[in-house]
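Intended use. Records like the one below are meant for learning the mapping from a protein sequence to its folded structure. Do not use them to infer anything beyond what is encoded.
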Amino acid sequence: MTDRLLVKNMKVGKRNEQGNLTIEFVLMLPLLSLLAVVGVTCYLTVLSSWNNDSACRDACRAAAQQMTAQDAQLAAVAACKRFGSGSIGQPQVSLAGNDFEYQTFPNATGQPTLESGPYVKVTTIVSQMPIASIFGGNSGGSKRSYTYPLVNNSGSPSVAADNAPVTFGSASDADGNEEQ
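Structure written out for the chain above:
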């Protein structure tokens, strides 16, 4: 009789454990799904920032090889367009404030001086990050700046007489901050 009671208790215990496993699985499934979505979102955000960094570097490199500020701007925009859009966002060359700067530092003869080398500064922005598109908000985007020395520069007539850098766009940045 004791054996029969023991076997009966084993069957009941086994059946209850299977039910507990199903309940635990059902309760943990939403948490695991949320973790998967957060993981994919973080991956896409890092990928978008990396893509923006590469686009900014290539845009600045292309702008540094131009003779005038206008050609440098066009080259930077063209280089930035080569980086695809899709789920990670399309990098854009920022023309706000001092985000695009073409500086030659010419002397009285129009040639760059040795003390301060000519440079170009390019800033790119990815305005819509993947985390915002998944959760339905605006994450503020990613902003990246690069500065390269000018490669093919023999002085540019597009620089003002007071040696002020040539800038494109408005005088103020929307955020008021800049990542270096």
